[in-house]
Amino acid sequence: MKKLVLADAAVADLEDIARRTESEWGKARKQAYLAAMRERMSRLCKYPSLGVARDEVAPGHRSTLSARHVIFYRERADAIEIVRVLHENMDVHSRLSLESKDALSDVPQRSLRPSRKKQGAKKGRRRGGRVGSPRQRR
To answer: Are 72 and 63 in contact (CB under 8 A)?
Structure first.
């Protein structure tokens, strides 16, 4: 099994995610969210091809989802290097710092999520996933 290596940018991303999650949802939710991310990253060490190839971002890069965040990584000979952990709505081009800036010059801007069929627009969702007032839900 390969070892897990976090780039400095990925460490900063995880610290920011922890801070924001705790302020928004509380300490227990933060711990559960980060534990799920750690589990996902650990699985990459055992199954490096688990993620989707993201050669449109940079050759050799892959990504995998963990809840609402996308984990960008590269497979090395003896390690999995986590490059960045970005929210699914963030722009790859403005956030992902790569060795070769030219690698992105001809790539159209895309969402972080790998392309999938759209399943329709979300309708009036609020936090907690409930729609409408309690009276409307009955």
So the answer is: yes
